[in-house]
From TrEMBL:
One of its GO terms (molecular function) is metalloendopeptidase activity. InterPro entries: MetalloPept_cat_dom_sf, Peptidase_M13, Peptidase_M13_C. GO terms for cellular component: plasma membrane. This is Peptidase_M13 domain-containing protein. It comes from Soboliphyme baturini.
């Protein structure tokens, strides 16, 4: 990336707004009373649940229509606080981190920071990198028709406006590096369902997975450097270095059991790679992982061609 594009990328990061934990509006009784005054406890009862539900739907719809008359508030908390997830909105350049992801087993202040950075740090990094991925899906409603337009995350400017800030040469380099990742993931196949990952369809999420882990690792290194000393070892894992613990925590992030039916659905329709690939393919692209575990050239986690964008 050339110097001008780098400066614009830094500006985009500097202007990103993070909504953390919950909406601050819930602390303002006056605003809450004004917002929800049309919904009263008298409306709800065992015999009129449907009517109450209809009133709630009508209330939410009216609230959304009223918001169309207002300017975008980039600081507004969008979404529930109780969902274990995080998300990035390219057209606002905002990242939302609900309170639920800051609870065990995802995050705990008593955990070694190697675990927290490897787990929730990579999750946050994943969403951050969506601002610099190859593709963002924007869905809009026009009258009664829903339509979807796909833009590159790198095509959105610091304030969320659609603006091509990356130079032609930098964009060409980005596309070349992205093609490396397409080829890598397209070679990941699963014999039990006789199907391979679609490197093109999953590219945006793969870029976010790889970049997110790298961002989390660099952040953890900065944390250790700032302390001037390593942390205490993780109980029960004293034979592992904290760098190894970081990468194991990252693997835990996507640890799950999957049926063949679920795997096939993921390979056919999902924009994410299967969870095994979200761990192994990312770590294959990490020289730090190779060094931490001393991977030999014969090890299946070693690769001669590392695909790295961010």
């Amino acid at each position: 990336m050339d110097d001008k594009s780098k400066l614009l990328a830094i500006r985009k990061v500097d202007n990103l707004i993070a909504s953390i934990a919950y909406s601050r509006l819930i602390l303002n009784d006056t605003i809450l009373e004004q917002m929800y005054c049309v919904l009263t406890s008298q409306d709800y009862g065992e015999d009129n649940f449907f009517q109450f539900f209809s009133k709630v739907v009508s209330f939410r719809t009216s609230h959304r229509f009223r918001s169309l008359k207002l300017l975008h508030d980039r600081t507004e908390f969008r979404g529930p606080s109780t969902i274990v997830n995080a998300w990035y909105k390219a057209d606002l350049n905002t990242i939302t981190l609900p309170a639920a992801i800051f609870t065990a087993p995802i995050f705990d202040a008593t955990f070694p920071m190697a675990v927290n950075y490897g787990f929730v740090g990579a999750l946050i990094g994943h969403e951050l990198i969506h601002g610099f991925d190859n593709q963002v899906c924007v869905t809009r409603a026009h009258v009664s028709v829903m339509f979807t337009v796909r833009f590159q995350g790198v095509q959105f400017f610091e304030n969320g406006l659609l603006h091509s800030w990356m130079s032609e040469q930098s964009q060409a380099n980005f596309d070349r590096l992205a093609e490396c990742m397409v080829e890598q993931y397209s070679q990941v196949c699963y014999a039990q369902v006789n199907r391979c990952v679609s490197g093109n369809r999953t590219l945006a999420e793969n870029i976010a997975d790889n970049g997110g882990m790298n961002v989390a690792y660099r952040a953890y290194q900065t944390y250790i450097y700032g302390r001037g000393a390593d942390e205490a070892p993780l109980p029960g894992f004293e034979n592992y270095t904290l760098e190894q613990v970081f990468f194991m925590a990252y693997g835990k992030l996507w640890c799950m059991s999957s049926t063949s039916r679920n795997l096939l659905d993921t390979l056919q329709f999902d924009t994410h790679s299967p969870n095994v690939a979200r761990v192994n393919e990312v770590l294959k692209n990490s020289p730090a992982f190779q060094k931490a575990f001393g991977c030999s050239t014969e090890n299946k986690m070693h690769t001669d061609r590392i695909c790295e964008i961010w």
